[in-house]
Amino acid sequence: MSLMNEHRFNRIAAMKPATKRAGVEPRGYVPATPEGADTLARLLGATLQKTRHGEHLSVRRWFSDASPGDVTMAALRLLAPDAPDEAADQNNWLFLDTETTGFAGGTGTYAFLIGIAWWDAGGLEVEQFFMRDHCDEHSVLGTLKERLAERSILVTFNGKSFDWPLLETRFRMTRSISPKAPRAHLDLLHTSRHLWRPRIGSVRLCELERHVLGRNRGHDIVSDLIPQIYFDFLRGGCAEQLVPVFYHNQMDLVGLAALTGRVFSLLAAPESECADALEVFGVSRICDRRGESSRARDLYAHAIARVLPKPVDGTARAALARLAKREGDFARATSLWMELRGISREGLEAYVELAKYFEHRMRHPKRAAELIGEALAELRRSRSIDFVPPARTGKWRTDLDKRMARLRNKCSTGQNETLLEANLTESRGLVAESK
Amino acid sequence: MPQSLAVRSRSTLEAVRDALGSLATLDRTGEVLTAIKHFPAREAKFAPMPEWVRPELASAYRAKGVTQLYSHQALAAEKVREGKNVVIVTPTASGKTLCYNLPVLNAILENPDTRALYLFPTKALAQDQLTELHDLATRLDDSFGVFTYDGDTPGDARKAIRERGHVILSNPDMLHTGILPHHTRWLRLFENLRYIVLDELHTYRGVFGSHLTNVLRRLHRIAKFYGSDPQFVCSSATIANPGELASRLTESRVEVLDENGAPSAEKIFAFYNPPVVNRNLGIRRSYLNESTRVAKEFLKQKLQTIVFANSRLHTEVLLTYLKQAYPAPPGNDEPIRGYRGGYLPGERRAIERGLREGRIRGVVATNALELGIDIGSLDATVMAGYAGTIASTWQRAGRAGRRSGAACAVLVASSSPLDQFIVQHPDYFFGRSPEHAYVQPDNLEILVNHLKCAAFELPISPDEKFGGVDVQAICDRLSEAGFLHKSGENWHWVQEAYPADTVSLRSVTSDNFVIVDVTGNESVDDGISGEPEVIGEVDFSSALTTVHPKAIYIHQGQQYHVEKLDFDQRKAFVKRVNVDYFTDAIRYTQVRVLEIADEDAIAGPAMRVYGDVLVRSQVVGFKKIKFFTNENVGSGKLELPENEMHTTAFWITLNRSLVASLDYSLSDRQAGMFGLLRALESIASLLLMCDPRDLGTAIGERPPSPGVVPDWHEEAEIAADPNLPRDYFEPNLYLYDAYPGGIGFSEPLFRAYELLLHRTRELISACSCTGGCPSCVGPAGEKSDKAKEVALTILSRLTRGA
Questions:
Q1: Average pLDDT of every residue of chain A
Q2: Does the interface ipTM go beyond 0.85?
Q3: Same-domain status, B201 and B276
Q4: Which domain, by its residues, includes B282?
Q5: Any bridge partners for residue A63, and if so which?
Q6: Is the model's pTM score more than 0.90?
Q7: Residues of chain B contacting residue A235, judged by C-beta atoms under 8 Å apart
């Protein structure tokens, strides 16, 4: 029996195409470089670069965007606490964004188009390296290595977890080209999340451009389609389809450069006129995370004063209460918790915090039990109006029930009745006061 | 031996004797306890610690109480040090881990760059090894790093593990999906990879083994890319061909080390055949009930007992029985627990701990506890049904008496032909192992999937070898299908998807069905309902038979009624119920011959053939079976998706003249053929050392002439309800590989057909029933009581003159 016959191959499920593609016919024979490469070069005004590792296509374009003002050390520390001081030097920045053959990562994912950009001559110089097929990869990576040697501070959007690890993998796969590690890597993703997710929801770069920077890219390609466009090109598909991919990559770099300016100015001076309340709240959260408690406290208060949407306002107050608790300012903390009580995450947390306060600080388990009882009652009421998703209520219920059982147990063993009574009066007073 | 130990061992032994004694009192005819083998304690053979062992390592072992080695440990360590690939074949609890740990750790201490990768068939086994190696690492001032790396490893720990792990404990699945596709992150491991340890090698047979060979082919490519050439150290339970299996899996020369210098405790091994209730019908008492009874005898003697069942369902049934006999004392933990694959990891760890600490007195388990998970020293093993292979049976028996002075193992035979063959032929079992482990790594379906993974990991070069196939031809085809692209000379992966994610090493698809409990919790005062809770999972292939709509799914002894099976979302929604029955699915199967690989006329007249077939099967209904009495109390129809599979099969075609010469009625002839097929299947799975589920059976008509596609004949796998007797013109009796593409059983069956027929004849003729029973050709049906007679007549024709 011939194992290798047509018949058999056709029955192997593993050989069935994963996706059905319209337009481009799959082909067995492929020329040395895809047929569309020359057309593509013409359309883009790209040049063929010959390097000691081979050849690739290169595109250069200058954009008249002005570089932002100076980057303050304080702002730099908020974005990247571990970065060296020289990371603030914008002459050393290299913006980076790649277009890849997939988003899952791993050794079989290629960065077929690598875009870099830097401030130059009062504007932004963009350079793109493109591999016409896999043979060009070493040449592309070799050139990238040279550019990295010239400017050693990487600036990316989600490049810390995606683009750069992927490039590291690509470099390792060559077994010969190994760039020096960047001196610092400034990634905007997490900071952008803090600053803009409450307002915009999505923190995709193009959304931020539109809603934060007020820029409109015009017609842009859906990034999910990019890998398939490249695969089609490899198999002899038309070059025209790739042109928008280059444009998309350029726009990403230009947007990234502009957004970087906006991020640093916000981090440096969040109280300034141009920041809205949610952005101030975002900066306060970042300060909070970085352990700059007093700055965080001021900014939370500042954000609340500028009027935050209801749920965010609760979060800000809860954060303030937590900071107060940490500093031992229980008067402030309890009064904030008293206000917060209610059927929301912060509201239920407030009940628990108050209960903990009365149980452990005031040694008043009875009052603590009362508070937990109120919280449970709130939960029951809320069920009818579906305020909190049911999956949440269950978790809260079990936690509260457990706490309740423990407190009841503690109350019934009746430890130190007199102290308890004494505290009761004190705490009643406090509750009245806070109301 | 210290006095105290001797006393203890005698008392365990007495308890065992008492338990067996009370079982024997019921055995008036001597047919119940068919064998009682007594294995005396065996003295250890020692060898000194080799001189090349670094002093700090020797003293670490000394501190653990190891001052000298067993002879096989010394030999193995020596061979590994010489750079040989070895497979160590020794029984449970013979100290095999030292065989590889000693030379590997020594090499790491000599050169801290050295790296080793240990692969275990299950995560739990890796966890177990971690404890042992951690202990050694601590004694050696943490001069080497040892970590498990599997699906449970938290994301933030992974980076540190990749950098600092000298010994990585993982499993083939994780190597396949988590390590190889990200090999650049494992630079240090692959640049310095010197040892690959494959533990429990015998578990890598059939589909799993065929996958593993391909994963190892990929590992070889990556190692070569980074300039390393690792050496293999394998361990295996006793099988007939450990060396062959090891060389097939690793595709290198492997030396077999099967001398054992470890001491062993006194052990009693008994075969228990449930008493016959009706001799004519060959009906025996339910082996599940009898296993419960045997377990209760041991528990009564205060012996910590493990009960093995062969399926999840039976685990739960036995657990239900034993829990009724030993309910939890108020306020205390359950003394009897279940343990099987579908339980969540936390639950399993707690049960393992309970067993080690002795709080749990009895455990009912599937093969999940068969391999070397440390559950401490149990006193007795009860096996409800034959484990399917001799190797597994010994491993299960080995769970008792790892350290204590004496132990007992009892195999309770079910009425299946395989079980009956084993208990009635004790020599087959206790003699030299006849079991061969087979793999078929060049199964095209499996190989192509791994070739795709390989291309993802490293471009495929024009001179590359991958198994025994034409790599370039396959790459051409994969390129046409849009998976690969040739740039320059090499083939590159050109898909967004991550190929390893779609390939499961263990079953046909990587899809699991999750079981969601949607029982409302109405007892809560305020009416807040219980949230849907995931209570377990089942793999794709068993989902249709265990969680079909209206099935009773049993988890930790609790019954659940399957309300809905969401096939697309891979979810089964269940509600807690309390009923007195369980369900058993009915599956229908059809086979069509696609291509004949080889055929040969044999006596009969008949043909033996093997080749490619198309198998279609469908779960069409289910039976409700009452607990304890096993009565059939109802049934239901199901409309579930049909499964289609290309695979390979071995079959016997009974020529027209043979069928015509059988002087029996139509239904007798048909019953005889089904009966014969059933007996053939039992013996085939015995010879192939395969899980009975890896082999499927069907009867179909031979096509009238080649090339003409016949109509589909719908036949039950077992003649469940042949309401319409069909006159087979020239019937084909199929034994097919229950895996797409075939897993290498057909050709060995074709070659060994004489042995297959003779053993089958032995099985049927040795059975004491008159007209057929579950232990040979299946129960005598309503339509015919001549199944046994006809099957034997056909067999005598087939073996005539041979």
A1: 84
A2: no
A3: no
A4: 3-30+265-430
A5: A124
A6: no
A7: 482, 485
